[in-house]
Amino acid sequence: MDNTSLEHVMGKHGVGQLNSNGEKLIEFCGINSFIIGGTHFRHKTIHKITWKSNDGITRNQINHIIINRKWAKSLLDVRIKRGADISSDHFLVVANIQISLKARKKSNTLFRRYNTALLDQPEVCNQLQLEIRDRFK
């Protein structure tokens, strides 16, 4: 598959001929900064074919893993699992990813603790209700 001028969206390792739906997918990915993951990895054709016709002759790569370009380096591999029993003429597309998650920083702000036992006193409870009512008018 010739991907001249489409390298920003798809890799060199796609299978089959590009039709109008494929062109729309590439346009969508280009506009939204996505890449088509399965076209970036070199595999045997049998590990890239995602669909076969009922006669078993026509085969194509029509199912894809699409990922935002900023996460592209997290995508380690995309391949097809032909042995998955899913009762379909499509094959299972599997992606291996590696993500590094940053630890959350602990906040230095102290939380103010309220003495809720004071709400048992009717005058304190009424005063709080009035303040809340006035605040949200």
What would you say this structure looks like, in words?
The protein has helices at 20-31, 122-135; strands spanning 34-36, 51-52, 59-60, 66-68, 75-81, 92-97. It has 137 residues and is of the alpha+beta class. It has a domain at 20-97. The strands form 3 sheets. It has a two-stranded antiparallel sheet. The protein is elongated, with a radius of gyration of 27 Å.
List the helices and strands and how they pair.
Elements: H1 20-31, E1 34-36, E2 51-52, E3 59-60, E4 66-68, E5 75-81, E6 92-97, H2 122-135
Organism: Latimeria chalumnae (Coelacanth)
Protein name: Endonuclease/exonuclease/phosphatase domain-containing protein
Shape: elongated
Number of helices: 2
Largest sheet: 2 strands, antiparallel
Q: Mean pLDDT across all residues, rounded?
A: 83
The H/E string reads HEEEEEEH
Summarize the structure.
The chain has helices spanning 20-31, 122-135; strands at 34-36, 51-52, 59-60, 66-68, 75-81, 92-97. It has 137 residues and is α+β, with helices and mostly antiparallel strands.
Note the main attributes of this structure:
single chain, about 140 residues, alpha+beta, two-stranded antiparallel ribbon, two-stranded antiparallel sheet, 6 strands, Endo/exonu/phosph_ase_sf, Endonuclease/exonuclease/phosphatase domain-containing protein
